[in-house]
Amino acid sequence: MEPQRQEYFAGISDGVVIDGRNGSDRGFLPNGHSHALTKAVRVVSGTLPPMTNGTKMAQRDMDGDSSDEHAPRLNPKPAYSVLQKLRTITIGAGFSGMIFAHKLRYEHPEMEQIVDNTIYEARSEVGGTWLVNTYPGVQCDVPSHIYAFPFDPSPDWDRFYSTGPQIQEYIVRTVKKWDLDRDVQFNTRVVGLYWQEELSQWKVTVEHDGKQHDEYADVVISGQGFLNTWQWPRIPGLQEFEGHKIHSAAWDHSFDPTNKQIAVIGNGSSGVQILPQMAKAEGTQVISFQRGPTWIVSRMDPGKLLGKSNIGSNPVYTEEDKRKFRLDRESHHQYRRKLIHNINKAFRMVCTRETHASR
Ligand SMILES: Cc1cc2nc3c(=O)[nH]c(=O)nc-3n(C[C@H](O)[C@H](O)[C@H](O)COP(=O)(O)OP(=O)(O)OC[C@H]3O[C@@H](n4cnc5c(N)ncnc54)[C@H](O)[C@@H]3O)c2cc1C
Ligand SMILES: NC(=O)c1ccc[n+]([C@@H]2O[C@H](COP(=O)([O-])OP(=O)(O)OC[C@H]3O[C@@H](n4cnc5c(N)ncnc54)[C@H](OP(=O)(O)O)[C@@H]3O)[C@@H](O)[C@H]2O)c1
């Protein structure tokens, strides 16, 4: 393509460039881009398409016309082309990173031809929260059937609420089943993100095996979670304490609690799960330090949703329940809908009189 044409072409809002080297205008673009293709072909053949807002702005940019100083300047380089995919970098391979990988690959398969996505994961396995938090009693407070990958909810949960290890096992199994870790680089931490104005790209500094290098991306997606860095509370003398000191977010499994005097500091979601586990270990004396009350929302009655009564707050699913969910996908779907509806209903309690009145 002639240089001027290539330049004009690059300014088209769809950002498509056709490589005419093999003489063909066809076969490069993914499905759903026929409109862009038509425009492109018309440009290549010299028939200019009517200008859209995008092309007008791009043309103005190239003409050096700065009459509208507030108009965004378009980068003349296309975001992607047949020769170069859009480069995305995802940080993290927890639920968020894996759901995004699934969306790119299965919900929008055409993206495979447009987007080159690399997932950097600091740890050596997928799972994020559920890989890392392994303290005694770790459990999810969202019902198992809806704390799930939306594209592959399991019919086989053992209980209404699941433990951390059960959720981690489900994540690993589902990621393997859908090959979602194909583009994950494990043991690789993102340590710097710098926007490069002149390139319209992110410079992403990653660290692997103690060595750093830079990668570049058009789009960075953060799936790094907001609960994965932890710190000790600032309590004078804590650092000098000579007994065994364990943080819930980095549990030391070599610690044997039996016959020990144990202080549990804090009564947040982790504290309330750890406390009973320490108390029931043999011969322990446990003190719970609480500086404020714990507020607990009354739970839904799991039995009601299953048409059963008196089955407790975390009942098991019977083999019959599981079989029904497995064989009758619609009933599984409806059951999950009921769960979500019940959870959403609970948000009414945070509505004030004013917000009710304004609805
Ligand atoms: C103990 C605990 C219990 C919880 N229980 C519930 C619950 O009952 N119900 C509920 O709804 N939510 C709960 N949560 C919240 C939970 O974090 C989210 O539900 C969900 O798992 C978050 O997934 P995520 O993929 O967004 O983040 P995460 O699971 O945190 O995953 C982030 C990933 O990004 C990686 N990462 C982070 N920074 C970098 C970096 N710079 N470079 C490379 N990789 C990086 C991490 O290693 C991690 O694998 C709980 C959280 C904790 C800590
Ligand atoms: N849903 C679940 O099953 C589950 C389980 C675990 C974690 N999580 C999630 O993970 C996140 C973190 O939860 P978390 O419980 O680990 O941490 P957290 O919510 O930050 O709770 C920390 C607790 O420690 C207390 N604390 C801090 N410093 C203290 C001090 N110096 N003296 C006495 N008490 C002190 C805090 O008291 P104050 O409240 O007074 O600050 C609070 O009770 C939350 O978002 C939570 O929802 C969820």
Could you characterize what this model shows?
It is a single chain. This protein is α/β, with parallel strands linked by helices. The strands form 3 sheets. Strands 3-2-1-7 form a 4-stranded parallel sheet, covered by helices on one side. Mean pLDDT is 82; it is low at 1-64. Among the domains are: 3-62, no CATH class; 241-289, no CATH class. Helices cover 31% and strands 14% of the residues. 19% of the residues are buried. It binds flavin-adenine dinucleotide and NADP nicotinamide-adenine-dinucleotide phosphate. Residues 91-97, 120-123, 128-129, 133, 138, 140-142, 189-190, 223-225, 227-228, 270 line the site of flavin-adenine dinucleotide.
Estimate what percentage of residues fall within beta strands. 5-15%
In N-to-C order, the SSE pattern is HHHEHEHHEEEEEEHEHHHH
* Number of helices, counting only DSSP H or I runs of 4 residues or more: 11
Q: Report on the biggest sheet.
A: 4 strands, parallel
The small-molecule ligands in this entry are: flavin-adenine dinucleotide, NADP nicotinamide-adenine-dinucleotide phosphate
Structural class: alpha/beta
List the helices and strands and how they pair.
Blueprint (H helix, E strand, L loop, with lengths): L2 H8 L23 H11 L8 H11 L22 E6 L3 H13 L7 E6 L8 H4 L31 H15 L5 E2 L2 E9 L4 E8 L2 E7 L1 E4 L38 E5 L3 H12 L4 E5 L12 H5 L12 H9 L1 H18 L6 H5 L2
Parallel strand pairs: 1-2, 1-7, 2-3, 8-9
Antiparallel strand pairs: 4-5, 5-6
Bound molecules: flavin-adenine dinucleotide and NADP nicotinamide-adenine-dinucleotide phosphate (NAP).
Flavin-adenine dinucleotide binds next to helix 4 and strand 4.
